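Severity: low
Component: inverse-folding endpoint
Summary: output formatting inconsistent between runs
Steps to reproduce: submit the following structure tokens with default settings.
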């Protein structure tokens, strides 16, 4: 197996975006947000588990006053006909008239965020924007687009930099994608 490849559970992955490129891009987004939110003391809301690394790296790249808090999204079977209801656990902050920046690991179909945004908007924030480390535009099924995007990627499964495959791989500093090379272990 080449050194740029790794095995996690039953699958092989290859390097897709290096940690150097990731750090560079996150510093850029940090500068952009610092410019856009100067004097507004935005509240970052990190969505656990996947965004914990992105949120903390981005937060350290800010040169303005800002606050951060983390939530977990839990889905449960609701009474609605269109499936599960997603609700936020740990959103204790008073967000009335606050400028909110949600940090996500990846926006895929957009289902998670589109179900959570109405709950957030009900609490009367001054503004809500989304910063997502990754976005898969080809996979989008719901009308939600991140305002700040680390990288747009094709519709493939990725791990590393906070993202997992069945709980493993979150600690990898680079981003990996499922390898086209056979994942059969000889
Ligand atoms: P959505 O609701 O936008 O379809 O999916 C968002 C969630 O799906 C993400 O927060 C993430 O947990 C998971 N997800 C989507 N694509 C990937 C991927 O390529 N890799 C990993 N590890 N998780 C993904």
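Observed output (run 2 of 3):
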């Amino acid at each position: 197996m080449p050194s740029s490849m790794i095995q996690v559970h039953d699958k092989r992955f290859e390097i897709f975006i290096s940690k150097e490129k990731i750090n560079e891009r996150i510093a850029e987004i940090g500068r952009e947000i610092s410019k856009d939110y100067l004097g507004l003391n935005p509240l970052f809301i990190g969505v656990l588990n996947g965004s914990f690394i992105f949120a903390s790296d981005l937060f350290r790249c800010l040169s303005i006053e800002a606050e951060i808090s983390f939530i977990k999204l839990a889905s449960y079977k609701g009474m609605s006909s269109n499936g599960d209801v997603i609700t936020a656990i740990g959103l204790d902050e008073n967000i009335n008239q606050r400028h909110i920046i949600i940090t996500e690991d990846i926006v895929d179909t957009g289902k998670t965020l589109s179900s959570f945004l109405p709950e957030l908007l009900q609490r009367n924030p001054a503004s809500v924007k989304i910063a997502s480390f990754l976005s898969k535009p080809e996979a989008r099924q719901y009308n939600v687009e991140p305002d700040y995007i680390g990288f747009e990627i094709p519709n493939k499964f990725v791990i590393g930099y906070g993202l997992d495959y069945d709980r493993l791989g979150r600690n990898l500093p680079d981003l990996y994608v499922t390898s086209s090379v056979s994942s059969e272990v000889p």
